[in-house]
Design a protein that fits this description.
The complex is a heterodimer of chains A (428) and B (257). Helices cover 21% and strands 37% of the residues of chain A. Chain A is α/β, with parallel strands linked by helices and 428 residues long. The relative contact order of chain A is 0.10. With 257 residues, chain B is α/β, with parallel strands linked by helices. The chains are: A alpha/beta (428), B alpha/beta (257). Chains A and B meet through helix 7 and helix 8 of A and helix 2, strand 7 and helix 3 of B.
Chain lengths: 428, 257
């Protein structure tokens, strides 16, 4: 076994050649503080318990592993939906391809602009939720993102956005290394749907900080792009106020390495959080969902619904935790993670955790791993459905519970259709 | 009597379990002409359900000898979906629940897969909907049941009616009903029998597998077979079913032993 890079010497060596992007005082301070967080915790290595099932070396190292650019020759997943489109190419904002950043009830800026201004609300949020999310588990690659992020969107919503904001990420360079950091502030009673689609880069490190004020609603639907060789590490840090709603769904097909972390804290009473994912993986695909939900207020609901379909040696990982603090009475926490293994050599590694200090709560968690139901397969075939098609139907049925977490039925239908098409094409 | 064409022809069929050295069928011979209804009765463990599974292509069995043809086509060399497209239909004794797959989606996928396999144009959404609604109404299947996932949360009667609905939609040539009466009350059984009788035609044959004569009061067979220990041991007219009902299997089994 080769030496693992997790000590602070390696971290110092890694950071030595990097310079933080230019900006005004508050931005420089925020970035320097983030560097301190990276140094304090060190970049992750295989010896870190939190990275036990996923090797972080290709996410941490200086050089980017080459990722062939994949041309899907199909419309972007959300292209049929009326939206405000913002395009990033290999992590760089593409003004020409994007819509005007104007929408009633909503202020949209670019991180690269606001970090040049002395006064902007973003100074009170940038890196703040990420820093809060460093305890009890260090997430130094997210702090690394805060320190070196290239760009991102900075959105403040004061009303109900007339249409979703859609972030489209294009990957055109085999060695692109994108560090994207978005800030979203949903004000009291405001409502936004954020869509994300595309592979973004050969290697993507993305942080999304979302602050949902009282009575705010934030919906997030993401598809991660079908590039086979891309690598992605994403973090969502969300803080939820009283009676607010946060819903995030991610669909992942392909990608040699994906780790999606979500760190959600319910700080106001009667808040609702849902985080869900559907993933299909083949071959050397490695997909990791790591979720940490903290209930820090009364009468809140949280749901985690993750489904993975794994074939030909693919690996799925789920680490999900619900922490219920002492005063978070009447918490209702639900967590389910399931894998469907289409071949014996695929594997699913799950670590569900509950840590509860309040005494009047309902929390349930379940994790299962199974093969396709042979009886159901035969039943479909006996009705004339060919084997491949029957298997696809059962795969989609398995994923349906996660896709059902998406409220907008047009969007969930589109997601199901894409999955169906990809499954069909996949089998050639 | 005019000899019709042979819809199902089984000759000397021997079948064992794939994973263990256990012979289940030990030389089954059975010929069903087009348009005829045959019934198989027999005690538990005689091989009735195995016969229906082997004909429809379920895994776990090994044919060691003999043959089975549908309308002249060798059944045993083709996949389950090809058998279905060739016109074979098995109404399951225990219809499988498939969470996440809507009953309507399932029906439409099946109908169109078979049409495609036979080189026919697929039904459009509107055509399909019209047909399925009419046929569902005949079986007292409401719209709600069509929307639910396949067989999930269905009562025993609803599951069996759903089987008959599939049969009506797929319009097979050779229908095998495996203990379709099991778990049904009299009213449900009558409804199912009515659905089956409505599908009887000169070009369609039935093989009705049952323990009890009472189903045969409602679906009147042309020929009744008694199956025991992996073979057909006696064949007769509808009166044979009545004999079983009155005297049980022991007399017949003693007679042929």
């Amino acid at each position: 076994m080769r030496a693992l890079k997790s000590n602070s010497d390696d971290t110092d060596a890694r950071l030595q050649d990097l310079t933080i992007p230019p900006g005004t005082a508050w931005a420089i301070t925020a970035r320097e503080q983030a560097i301190n967080r990276v140094r304090a915790a060190g970049l992750p290595g295989r010896r870190d318990e939190y990275w036990k099932y996923t090797n972080p070396s290709t996410l941490c190292q200086g050089g980017v592993e080459k990722a062939a650019v994949f041309n899907p020759q199909e419309a972007a997943v959300f292209s049929e939906i009326d939206q405000l489109k913002i395009v990033f190419v290999d992590g760089v904002f593409d003004k020409a391809a994007s819509d005007d950043l104007e929408l009633e009830g909503i202020e949209i800026d670019l991180l690269s602009d606001v970090t040049q201004r002395d006064i902007h609300w973003a100074k009170n949020l940038y890196g703040v939720l990420e820093a809060d999310g460093q305890v009890p588990v260090a997430r130094s690659l997210a702090a690394y993102n805060t320190a070196y992020s290239q760009d991102g969107v900075v959105i403040r919503i004061t009303g109900k956005a007339a249409k979703p904001v859609s972030l489209l990420y294009l990957h055109t360079s085999e060695t692109s290394d994108a560090i994207i950091h978005h800030l979203i502030k949903v004000e009291d009673g405001a409502e936004l749907t954020l869509l994300e689609d595309g592979p973004a880069a050969a290697r993507l490190n993305m942080v999304l900080e979302v602050d949902v004020a009282d009575n705010g609603i934030f919906r997030h639907i993401r598809t991660q792009g079908r590039d086979h060789e891309r690598r992605a590490l994403t973090h969502i840090f969300a803080r939820l106020g009283t009676e607010s709603v946060f819903k995030s769904f991610t669909m992942t097909v392909n990608g040699v390495l994906t780790r999606n972390e979500a760190v959600i804290t319910l700080t106001g009473d009667n808040a609702t959080a849902s985080i869900a994912g559907a993933a299909i993986g083949d071959g050397d695909f490695h997909h990791d969902d790591t979720v940490f939900i903290t209930h820090d207020a009364q009468n809140c609901n949280s749901r985690q619904v993750f489904k993975k379909v794994l074939s030909n040696g693919a690996t799925g990982v789920f680490q999900g935790k619900i922490l219920v603090k002492k005063d978070a009475q009447k918490t209702d926490g639900y967590q389910i993670s399931q894998a469907l293994l289409l071949h014996d050599n695929a594997q699913f590694l799950a670590k569900p955790e509950l840590e509860i200090y309040a005494d009047d709560v309902i929390c349930s968690h379940g994790s299962t791993t199974g093969a396709i139901d042979e009886d159901a397969l035969f039943y479909l075939r006996a009705r004339g459905v060919p084997l491949d098609e029957a298997q696809d139907l059962l795969v989609l049925a398995f994923l349906a519970e996660a896709i059902d977490e998406v409220d907008d039925k047009d969007i969930s239908a589109e997601l199901t259709l894409r999955l169906q098409q990809w499954l069909q094409r996949h089998r050639g | 009597m005019q000899i019709g064409k042979q819809m199902l022809e089984i000759k000397n069929l021997h079948v064992k379990l794939e994973d263990e050295d256990k012979q289940i069928l030990k030389g089954v011979d059975l010929t069903i002409e087009a348009g005829k209804v045959h019934a198989i009765m027999g005690p538990n463990g005689s091989g009735k359900s195995t016969l229906s599974y082997v004909l429809s292509g379920k895994g776990g069995y090994e044919v060691t000898q003999g043959s089975a043809h549908i309308d002249g086509l060798d059944l045993l060399s083709i996949d389950p979906e090809e058998r279905a497209a060739a016109g074979l239909f098995l109404a399951f004794q225990y219809p499988v629940e498939i969470p996440g797959v809507g009953n309507m989606t399932f029906l439409r996928t099946a109908v169109n897969a078979q049409r495609k396999a036979r080189g026919q144009a697929e039904l459009t959404g509107a055509e399909f909907l019209k047909e399925v609604r009419a046929k569902a109404a005949d079986l007292n299947i409401d719209a709600e049941m069509l929307k639910r996932p396949v067989n999930v949360g269905f009562s025993g009667g609803e599951k069996k009616r759903n089987e008959i609905l599939q049969m009506a939609m797929l319009e097979p040539k050779m229908c095998i009903l495996d203990e379709t009466d099991s778990g049904l009350d009299v009213d449900a059984m009558k409804l199912v029998a009515k659905g089956v009788n409505a599908l009887r035609s000169a070009g369609r044959s039935f093989l009705v597998i049952t323990h009890y004569q009472r189903l045969l009061d409602h679906i009147k067979p042309d020929v009744v077979h008694i199956m025991a220990n992996g073979r057909m041991v006696k064949t007769g007219g509808p009166e044979l079913a009545l004999e079983v009902e009155t005297n049980g299997y022991s007399d017949i089994l003693a007679e042929v032993a």
